[in-house]
Amino acid sequence: FGLRLTASAAVGMMKGCSLNTSSSYLAGADVKLEGLILGKTVTAADAFAEYGEINGVAKRNQVKVDVIGKNIFSKSFSTYKACSKQSLSVSRYEKDWSFGFTILIVIVPVSFSAGLKVEFNAEAAMFPCVQQVLYNVSFIPSVKLTAYGGASVSIIVAKAGVNIEGSFTQSLDPHGYVDGARCALGYEVNSVTDPLTAKLYGWYRVRKWTLSWGKEHKVTIWSHSLARVTKNIDRREARVY
Description:
Elements: E1 2-13, E2 25-37, E3 40-54, E4 57-67, E5 70-75, E6 86-105, E7 108-129, E8 134-154, E9 158-179, E10 184-193, E11 197-206, E12 217-225, E13 229-239
Antiparallel strand pairs: 1-2, 2-3, 3-4, 4-5, 6-7, 7-8, 8-9, 9-10, 9-11, 10-13, 11-12
């Protein structure tokens, strides 16, 4: 089981930082989430936000989010150029991906299962300020991945199994910016990983005299957790004269 979350930011502008001429620039951020399960790779989410102008006219302006190959969000930023932040929130989206199979071992059926559950939240933001030639575009996703797997066996009077499950949440903050006051452009990507938790446990149930299954009993075999990790992945800046 695993999770791979990647992010990138792009930014560009024409030379010169004059406030008296219309500017041409592009700023954007892109993220991709992939889930890894039993040797299989699943593209869980693919999203980007970008805004660009050519001679003061908006040419590229879109926020788009695809989850498990399905588009769940597609909007544009307002072209109103006040010096204030604009935000577009993507509603929470959940998706399960799982599979299972059963084999017979000496006439006893043994079932195996595994899967991923993805919970996705995101916010795209833009700060346009044409008066100061100041622009900032970011896309901030928060993704929680829960992975699970197990094996179980069932006979007439009892059934039991062993399961493993783990989850963690990761957020990335990629953003590109243009700063006319300093005649500079750049991008930065930060990462925050919330505590990783994982647990291996066994369980069993015994059939009652009424033929229904009794209460499930669990025994934790192993558990582990890690602290939150915050780090800067990349930061670049260049001057444009």
